[in-house]
Structure formats: structure tokens, C-alpha cells
Specification:
CATH topology of one domain: D-Maltodextrin-Binding Protein, domain 2
Helix content: 40-55%
CATH architecture of one domain: 3-Layer(aba) Sandwich
CATH superfamily of one domain: Periplasmic binding protein-like II
Strand order of the largest sheet: 2-1-3-13-4
Structural class: alpha/beta
InterPro entries: Bact_solute-bd_prot1, DUF3502, SBP
Number of helices: 18
Pfam family, one: SBP_bac_1
CATH class of one domain: Alpha Beta
Shape: globular
Keywords: Signal
Protein name: Extracellular solute-binding protein
Number of strands: 17
Radius of gyration: 26 Å
Distance between the termini: 80 Å
Length: about 500
């Protein structure tokens, strides 16, 4: 009898335990008001999130990853399977992964419009409302609203600024060796490049980071009142003057754009710009092979300066920017990076809970700067000091970037710190007329694909100065005009509809 009673008790206990485990196995735990799992949900079942990132893992990544997982073990119970894809392959492999329904839970995307239109990313509004108070709390309403598509958010915007900054980075040691004063203007920068060509022939004067910086962005910065901006990545199309119109360079060439093409051509023909500028990128600067390059930062980022100093002992670097905090610029508040949840993910709730967890200061600091006291030190509100003997070049742009939590390197010069603070305040910019507008390329998808190929063949050489501008533009127009004007017409049509609806 005692044995039978004992067996019944064990059976009952097993049933209760099974019920508890079953309840804990669900991935739909309700969060607390802070976005953390409530006490009853502390026993969340273990989940491994598979995440796709671009580039190579940063140094000490395994140590930082272990610390992230240790912090998560008592709450979200998440492990990380982070797949790093080389920059040269990331676009192709991302599309393969999405189209073949690979089991990713989070994917970095720099331009998610196409994947959103294809229905490959999960709408996130309800998930963020439920699990992401810190995702919303670390981003301005302008940023959250501007990155929606048809009124819905399909990817968390990752950005720390409200413009797309870029900077000329200069070999300071070479400048000083040649007796050149600190660069204060674009004309002085050009003069320095020619001095390098004449007096330091063993180094390439100028290797820009492709067409992005020295094309329409540079044209706009050399005459900010024009407010020139490229239309997405469609060569030949641009906006200006914040007038709600789309222009093409064949029918409406802005004089500042043509002047920029001509300057780049002169730099190339004079041997100042690298002969193989179409292939080389700013990584050459860190190897000590260029006197000037361009980067997506204000100032010199830590990884570049550290790599340069290792490659060329005794070298040093500095930055020169065409931006100035007194400029009255507009912003679309669009992000340059996003983290999205594929519709195929089986861990959507936990993925957003995890991203919310990253948007807390102590966790963001770990993700961005490494282990405090070992890789970095607190240098005051909004600042940090990297430890040069044990640096950690994190990749917050791929999964957490936001202007509220991101810190500025305190070792940067005062003017660079001022620029960084300026660009992170939405109040310093006026809303561009395109703010909140997202173009659907579907109706002209064939033209977009064709233009992309033609642009690489015929437009990029114009921007990089490899061909005489007028001759290059004539050849480009012959092959691209139909595609450019069809995309222009569709873009203008959608923009007009957007603006009309906004006025209602």
C-alpha cells in the first residue's frame, strides 16, 4: 500500500512538473513594465538566437560574447550563434539565406526596402510595443517614424546621427614632416595631396572609399545651400533644394555636381588619386598606403588609428571635415543600418526581448566597447576612454546603435567631439521633405537592376575621375537614359502621392 501511495504521489508530482515545464517552454512570456521578463518568467526555456552580421568578428569577441551570455543566463536565457559574413559576400549571402528560409532570428540589413516588399521581414510594431520599451526609449520619435514603411516598422533603425557623416582622414605625421600647416579648407587639402605627390612619391596621395563620399555628398558639402542628395543608390538621380522634386544629371545637371566631376578627373589624371581607385578602399589607409582617405565618421575611428600605428610605427592620423555645426541642414532621419527579424524565425518574441536588452546602458556598453576596466573606462556623460593596450572595436552599428546610449571617444579632439554631439541632436536639423517616405522599387524593378549594372560600368568611373566627365556622361546617357527617366518618373509619382496624403 505504501509503495502504491508513493507511486501515485510521484505520478502527481511528475504531472505538475510537466505542466510547469510546458508553461515555461513557450516563447511568449509577458514582459514587465521595464521590458524584462516578469519574475514568473525567469525560467524561460533556453533559446539560441542565430544572427547574421557583416564583416569579421572584432578582437576579443569570444570573451565579450561569453559575458553577454552570462548576463542573459538568469533572465532571457539566450545563447548567441553569431554568423559573420565578409563584406564582399554579405549582400549575396543575406539574400540566399532569406530566400531559402534559413533559420536566422536576426539579420543586419543596410537597405531593407526590397526585403520588406518581398514579405521577408516580420512587422515589429506589436512586438516592440510589448517587448521593446527601451528600443523606443533610446530613439527619437523622428527616427522611429521616418523608418516605417506604409506606416509599419519592419526593422529596428540603427543610427547614432541624423545626417550621414563622412570625413577626410589624413596622415598627420606626413603633413608635419612636409611642413604643411593643419588643413582648414578643401583647397588646402587638395594642395596637400599635390605636395605629397611631389615630395613623398612612395605613398599614394589619395585613396577615397569608393564613389559614396566624393560624389554627390562632396558636391553638396562644397556648397551646402544646394542641399544636393543622391536618390538612394540610383546613379544619375538626385534631389536638391528640399523642393520635393527628383532630378536627373542628363536633363538637369547641377553646376556643383559637374564641377565636382571635373575636380576628381583632374586629381586622377594628375596622379593624385590612386590609379586603381575603383577597386581600392579606405582599408589601404590603415595599411599605411595612402596619405588621405575618406571614412564614415567624424574624426579617426579607433580601429583605423590603431591599425595604422601598428603598420607604420611612429605614424599618426587626424581628420578634416567639410561639415560645420553652424550649418543649417535638413535630415530625413533615415537610418543607415537596421536589425530585422525574418518571418521564418521561430523566436521572434525572444529576438525583440534581446534587442531591447541591448538597449540598456550597461549592456550597450559591453556590446560597443567591451569589458569595462579592461577594454575601456568611463570618461564622463556620453564619453568613454578606450584602453589602447587592450582595445575592443565593437560593432554596435549592426545590432544596437542609437544616439542616446552611444558614447564618444574622449581622446578625440574637441572640434570632433563637438561635431559628434551636434549630429546626434535631432533639434539641430529641419525635417527634409522626404522624411518618412520610402520608395517601392517594385514597379521599376527591371530598370533598377539594369541601372545598377550600367552604373558600375559607366557611372562610377565618372565619379572617380577615371574618364573625362562630358565624354563619360555621353556614354552613360546612351545606355542609361531610359532606365533613369523611368525610375525618376515612378519615384516622383510615389513621392507626390506621399506628400499629398501628408497634407490631408
Amino acid at each position: 500500500m505504501k509503495q502504491r501511495k508513493k507511486a501515485l504521489l510521484l505520478a502527481a508530482a511528475s504531472m505538475i512538473l510537466a505542466g510547469v515545464l510546458s508553461a515555461c517552454s513557450t516563447d511568449k512570456a509577458a514582459p514587465s513594465e521595464t521590458g524584462k521578463p516578469a519574475a514568473a518568467d525567469a525560467q524561460l526555456s533556453p533559446v539560441t538566437l542565430k544572427i547574421m552580421f557583416p564583416g569579421d568578428p572584432p578582437g576579443n569577441w569570444n570573451e565579450v560574447k561569453t559575458e553577454i551570455e552570462n548576463r542573459l543566463s538568469g533572465s532571457l536565457n539566450v545563447k548567441l550563434n553569431v554568423v559573420f559574413i565578409p563584406w564582399s559576400d554579405v549582400l549575396t549571402k543575406r539574400q540566399v539565406a532569406l530566400s531559402s528560409a534559413e533559420d536566422y532570428d536576426l539579420i543586419w540589413d543596410n537597405n531593407p526596402t526590397q526585403n520588406i516588399a518581398a514579405g521577408l521581414y516580420e512587422p515589429l510594431d506589436a512586438l516592440i510595443d510589448k517587448y521593446g520599451p527601451d528600443i523606443k526609449g533610446t530613439r527619437s520619435p523622428q527616427m522611429m517614424d521616418a523608418n516605417k514603411v506604409n506606416g509599419k516598422l519592419f526593422a529596428v533603425p540603427l543610427e547614432v546621427n541624423f545626417i550621414r557623416p563622412w570625413t577626410f582622414v589624413i596622415r598627420k605625421d606626413i603633413r608635419e614632416k612636409l611642413g604643411v600647416a593643419p588643413i582648414k579648407s578643401y583647397d588646402e587639402l587638395i594642395k596637400f595631396m599635390y605636395t605629397v605627390k611631389e615630395k613623398a612619391p612612395d605613398i599614394t596621395p589619395f585613396i577615397p572609399n569608393g564613389t559614396e563620399h566624393i560624389g554627390l555628398k562632396q558636391a553638396s558639402m562644397l556648397d551646402p545651400k544646394t542641399n544636393i542628395a543622391p536618390v538612394l543608390s540610383y546613379p544619375g538621380l538626385y534631389t536638391k533644394g528640399n523642393d520635393g522634386k527628383v532630378y536627373n544629371i542628363f536633363d538637369n545637371m547641377d553646376p556643383q555636381i559637374m564641377k565636382n566631376y571635373e575636380t576628381n578627373h583632374k586629381l586622377y589624371t594628375d596622379g593624385v588619386m590612386a590609379r586603381d581607385a575603383l577597386i581600392l578602399r579606405n582599408g589601404e589607409f590603415a595599411k599605411g598606403k595612402a596619405a588621405v582617405s575618406t571614412f564614415n565618421d567624424f574624426g579617426v575611428n579607433l580601429s583605423t588609428s590603431t591599425a595604422l600605428e601598428k603598420a607604420v610605427p611612429g605614424s599618426s592620423s587626424e581628420a578634416f571635415s567639410l561639415y560645420d555645426p553652424s550649418m543649417k541642414l535638413s535630415s530625413t532621419y533615415k537610418a543607415g543600418n537596421y536589425i530585422a527579424v525574418p518571418v521564418i524565425s521561430k523566436n521572434k518574441e525572444r529576438a525583440i526581448q534581446f534587442i531591447n536588452w541591448l538597449n540598456k546602458q550597461e549592456n550597450y556598453d559591453l556590446l560597443a566597447y567591451g569589458i569595462k576596466g579592461k577594454n575601456w573606462e568611463d570618461a564622463g556623460p556620453g564619453l568613454y576612454k578606450p584602453m589602447k593596450d587592450n582595445t575592443y572595436a565593437g560593432i554596435p552599428f549592426a545590432w544596437g546603435w542609437n544616439p542616446k546610449l552611444d558614447r564618444i571617444d574622449a581622446s578625440l579632439s574637441e572640434d570632433v567631439i563637438k561635431l559628434n554631439k551636434w549630429q546626434r541632436d535631432p533639434g539641430n536639423f529641419t525635417a527634409d521633405i522626404l522624411s518618412g517616405f520610402t520608395f517601392d522599387p517594385g514597379p521599376v524593378s527591371n530598370e533598377v537592376a539594369q541601372l545598377g549594372n550600367i552604373g558600375k560600368e559607366l557611372y562610377d568611373p565618372i565619379v572617380m575621375g577615371l574618364v573625362e566627365p562630358k565624354e563619360g556622361l555621353a556614354k552613360f546617357k546612351e545606355k542609361a537614359y531610359t532606365n533613369v527617366t523611368k525610375i525618376q518618373a515612378e519615384y516622383q509619382k510615389q513621392l507626390d502621392t506621399f506628400l499629398a496624403n501628408r497634407k490631408k
